[in-house]
Design goal:
This protein has eight helices and 13 strands. The chain is of the alpha/beta class and 240 residues long. It has a single domain, classed as Alpha-Beta Complex (Spore Coat Polysaccharide Biosynthesis Protein SpsA, Chain A). It is globular.
Length: 240
């Protein structure tokens, strides 16, 4: 199982902190977001990492070389990082993923190892992590589930009142699901108007095409997706 880290973005909402530093290299406590993430990945014995770079990519490469010199890592640059979004970035990993399962991480999520352990050990071949103890608003990626915990729909535009919780930005995708996912993203990205689309909507398409997708409930475990200065402050308090 490979790990994919989407780390191409500019992090404009947390400027000036990201004026000269990629968001994934901001420190939370005494460690950067990226160091915490890769350490968790290694701790669950995932040995191959694919990093999608873009903004200030050399800083990310240098950091990984220094902190994790032994890491089996493949770098793929999103040359259009300032004009595209996560759907486009994820599609760039297609060849590197090959015929393997993978876990995808948004590079701005700080999380405790138990979350990843739960996801990897889940009986679902494809699954996403959801937090049910969230005040769902327009910004959150919402998840609708059936009574057995199977995902029905994923997306920011879903009505909060029908959602089971928020997707935290970490998903496990089986090799069979990956084939359908990449085909969907390829089709989507043929139209430049879709280059700003998130990958989340494609998960709904997977379910509609009959690919089973589970929801792993990580409510009560520690995590923060850092988009804003308020998020960053919350992460510092939670992981100090």
């Amino acid at each position: 199982m490979k790990a994919i880290i989407l780390a191409a973005g500019v992090g404009s909402r947390i400027r000036p902190l990201t004026d000269n530093t990629p968001k994934s290299l901001l420190k939370v406590g005494d460690k950067t977001i990226l160091e915490r993430m890769i350490t968790n990945i290694e701790d669950v014995e995932m040995t191959e990492v694919i990093v999608i770079t873009g903004y200030l990519e050399e800083q990310i490469k240098e950091f990984i070389r220094e902190k994790f010199p032994h890491l089996n890592v493949t770098y793929i640059k999103n040359e259009k990082y300032d004009q595209t979004n996560t759907g486009y970035s994820l599609l760039l990993t297609k060849e590197a993923v090959g015929d393997d399962d993978f876990v995808k991480f948004d590079a701005d999520v700080v999380f405790e190892k138990a979350i990843l352990e739960q996801l990897v050990k889940s009986s679902h071949s494809s699954a996403l992590c959801i937090d049910k103890n969230i005040n769902l608003e327009a910004e959150e990626v919402k998840v609708e589930c059936d009574k057995d915990g199977n995902v029905l729909k994923v997306g920011k535009k879903l009505p909060p009142q029908t959602a089971a919780g928020e997707s935290i930005g970490i998903e496990k995708i089986s090799k069979d699901a990956a084939k359908v996912l990449f085909a969907e993203l390829e089709d989507l990205m043929k139209d430049q108007a879709n280059h700003q689309q998130y990958y989340d909507d494609s998960y709904t398409t997977l379910v509609e095409k009959g690919i089973p997708f589970g929801a792993v409930d990580i409510t009560g475990l520690k995590w923060v997706e850092i988009d804003t200065h308020e998020d960053y402050k919350k992460a510092q308090e939670l992981f100090k």
